[in-house]
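Predict the 3D structure for this chain.
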Amino acid sequence: MGTDIRVLLVDDHDFFRGGLRELLTEHGGVDVVAEAADGGEGIELANRHRPDVVVMDLNMPRMSGVEATERLTASSADARVLVLTISADDTTVVDAIKAGASGYMLKDAPVEEIYRAIQAVASGQLLVSPRVSRALVGVLGAAADRSKLAAAIESTLSERELQILRLLSMGRGNADIADELFLSPATVKNHVAEVLNKLGVENRIEAAAYAVRAELV
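Done. Predicted structure below.
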């Protein structure tokens, strides 16, 4: 990956897509290599340009962002999709998670947060907006009530691991967590792996959803 992160924007709203392109370009560090108005066109352009990150809307004509995400991630293990959706309550967010998206942000997030999400996804991290993570709570099954779940998590994790769980649940990447806790990124990576292992989850997004359900954040 070069100095600038190569990004493909996929959104059927020309005004939003153009505005986001301008904001990211003004911010710097991002090269918008192409734009698409639906999922099918997004797949075609992703195959042609091989962007570092595909920023994907969910609700689009002809082919939805969910289907496009599923096809992209199924065809290439290196495909990195950041979903940028209008609603945290949209059930298609859950579908996008299952389809293999690496990040989930809301369209009303500040451009700096969207840029950090692009950075995180480009570097191979999984990142989810705290508000979007609430949409995951329902798919985790009927777990214990919040107080019992919180007690179970707190008894399972060390104080440092709880700190890291809260921060990753706020959408922080490893580098940000390392800076805030005065740790090395490698140490944070090891702690995150241990948190996932102890909670019995596969990724940061599921861990964040448990933390939200337990009202730890």
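The mean pLDDT is 84.
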